[in-house]
Amino acid sequence: MEPILMRHRPYDPISHEFKLDTHSIRRVQDTDQGRNYPITFHVVADDKVQVSTTTNTEADSIEDCVQPHGARLVQLFWRMVQPSYPILFKAGFMEKYQRSYRRISPALLGAVYLISLTWWSYDTELSIQAPPDSRLLRQLTSQAIQNSYHLPRLSSIEAILLFLQCKPENPLNPDHTFVWGYVSQALAVGECIGLHLDCSGWSIPQWEKNLRKRLAWALFLQDKWTSMAFGRPSHIHGSNWGLEALTLADFDDLTPNPEVESNEYELAGKAQFLEMIHLSQYLSEIQDRFYTLNSSASQDCDELFCSIMPLVQQLQQWYIDLPASVSLTVRYQRQLSPHGYLHLAYHGVMMNLVRRLVRSAALPPRTQNNEVLSEIRKVGFEVAQAAMKLVTSLRPDHLEAFWFSASSYIFSLLGSFITLLLVTSVSSQERDHWQDLLNSYIWTLRTMNRSSEPMRYAANRLEGAILRGLEHALAIRPDESADFGFREAEKQEFDFSNFANWDLAALDFNSFDLLEGMDLRPP
């Protein structure tokens, strides 16, 4: 409706609503970005919305799946998920839940139960019981999420985001269209309830302002990382994003008693969430500048090198400046360490950025600047080695902790990135190194994936899809007994500047690709 007309409604001075027969118009702020007309929402009563089932029926079906263990699953959620992924208002949730599970949105109730099943064995009472039917719980939660769109609330967004963090039903055949559809639906619902707007001046409680801001940035994370993982266009653009940066003040509602300081674990979780947002803003810039439909057409290697290397240096400095509280070396007393996903995400962004350079250098016309080509191979080497070092340094308390949904993709991206460096090798020495490292990484995934669902997905994706059909050509033999131990980057003796020995000019093509012209059929 025309916004100027909205300022002339006779709003109730207390509720700030103007009631009509079919709905109400609620004014949350008198001005919109300084303009003299209000920000308003159309509010419809729940009983006027037609859905296939009642919320009580849905909640009862979900509770039946887990009873009598619902309360213990909720406690697992506060221990394992909320500290590093703080998208719920704990005090409000628990006040309702302690009265009755029916007071919680069925979609959110199911999502909290479903994600908490991951840590079933970490509860002394639950560990000796048979776990619930997760498949049925997933189906009921998914249906409740779909029904919640008719009654859009913040809990609808919370439920979708938590559902997306759950283990896939079939890791061997993940449904990317389904996941991307959920992300898109979450963004659509979020826009309907104004999550893309700055709510700092709205006539709503402070806890809701904080929660809205955290949820909005959590949506930003989900959109950007799923966009990268699936190669889809991001739906969030800066021109329609009105939020200020998240700060520690936006977590105040997570500490019910302001006189009690948050413990070290909770403070580290807040810091990690903030840093993940900062990193995702870098990712957003990379996607916009180098991976849109138009920008990805540019293959000028020298020009890309000049654009990308400053970003590489900025990311490296960001990583150096990370607070000590989120370091991988931190250990907690009888608590899992969720910091692995932030560090893995950093390496994911670096690989996503540098692979654009490696790809452009391997496509015609080949750059004539050997110094640029040398630097590209060098930075690719350093990024791959650093990521491999991270993976092999992960401890059991890292692997068993909460991992952001994109982590499984990043684990597989490392294998794909190593393969890219292998097929674009410019010397036999470099090719042998990448073959060894790829075999070593596949073996690492095999030995570690029993403790990590994201690694299990990566192993399946790498061997079942990315490398399928190329095993013979790339000499991928992780089962053979050999010395495939990880080598520290500083011990390598590659001379990336000595292109005279590599004799690129003698190559009989304008680009270099190990697989070009090769018969890929197995013997």
TrEMBL record:
Keyword Transmembrane helix (UniProt): yes
Keywords on record: Membrane, Nucleus, Transmembrane, Transmembrane helix
InterPro entries assigned to the protein according to its UniProt record, in alphabetical order: Carb_Metab_Trans_Reg, XnlR_reg_dom
TM region(s), chain numbering: 401-423
Molecular function GO labels: DNA binding; zinc ion binding
One Pfam family, short name: Fungal_trans
GO BP terms: DNA-templated transcription; nitrogen catabolite activation of transcription from RNA polymerase II promoter
Keyword Membrane belongs to the record: yes
Name of the protein described by the UniProt record: Xylanolytic transcriptional activator regulatory domain-containing protein
